[in-house]
Amino acid sequence: MAGETDLSKLLKTMKPVHHTGDYVFCTITDLGTVPLEEIILFFKEEEGITIIITQQLADKLGFEYTAVFSWITLTVHSSLAAVGLTAAFSTALSAAGISCNVIAAYYHDHIFVGKNDTEKAMDVLNTFSA
Predict the structure, then answer these.
(1) What gap in Å lies between CA 19 and CA 79, rounded to an integer?
(2) Where are the domains of the chain?
(3) What is the pTM (predicted TM-score) of this model?
(4) 5, 26, 41, 101: which could join 63 in a potential S-S bond, CB 3.0 to 4.6 Å?
């Protein structure tokens, strides 16, 4: 099933959902040190493997992290070929003084914002469908 590519439809129907919990970005050298079912995302980079996991798991495993994030998913099924969605919401978040880290998966876009910016970010994202 192909995702939506029309930017106006994407913005009006993106319906952001906040996942409860606290999330962190960590780097590791061996994926075997973390149960795969506990990893939200992993990406292999030249310098190491970046993982997103819960803060609770990172603390349990003794992993270092520099910030705590909230996870927001845009529930619209956006196409990987859609143009402008990331630019539109990241510009709006930036104008509100909110940094965002964006992960585009097959079905949805996922946004990680600083824990203290969660409510403000949800307000900004919800303005697109108002």
Answers:
(1) 22
(2) 7-127
(3) 0.93
(4) 26
